[in-house]
From TrEMBL:
Hemimethylated DNA-binding domain span: 6-104
Protein name per its UniProtKB record: Heat shock protein HspQ
Alphabetical list of Gene3D superfamilies matching this protein: Hemimethylated DNA-binding domain
SMART domains: YccV-like
MF term (GO), any: DNA binding
């Protein structure tokens, strides 16, 4: 039986990418890698483990999302306003604290 790893982060948390330094807001979590093998071969630098949690994230100040392995994320302690065009559709702007946002619905 495969070991299940508990995700360290949850939707609504602001995190920072440890290699690239950008802030991000988690909007969904996969228990294990769930994208295509082709995407992994092209995009997953360092080839992080596929049997650990991966996160769907909004990138602060950009208009795209990305998919990141848990080992590449850490809690972000910055309190600047988070900006992304998908924020209002995924999170309730009136219900957030300095470090997290309340999701409008459960994605996964």
């Amino acid at each position: 039986m495969a070991k299940i790893h508990i995700a360290q982060f949850a939707p609504g948390q602001i995190v920072k990418h440890t290699a690239f330094g950008y802030r991000a807001l988690i909007f969904d979590v996969d228990a294990t890698y769930s994208q295509s093998p082709e995407w992994y071969d092209i995009m997953a630098e360092g080839k992080p483990r596929k049997d650990r949690p991966w996160y769907h994230i909004l990138v602060d100040g950009e208009d795209h999302t990305t998919y990141v392995a848990e080992c590449n994320l850490e809690i972000c302690h910055e309190t600047d306003c988070f900006e992304h065009p998908m924020m209002d559709s995924l999170f309730d702007p009136a219900a957030h604290s300095v470090s997290d946002y309340a999701a409008r619905f459960v994605v996964n």
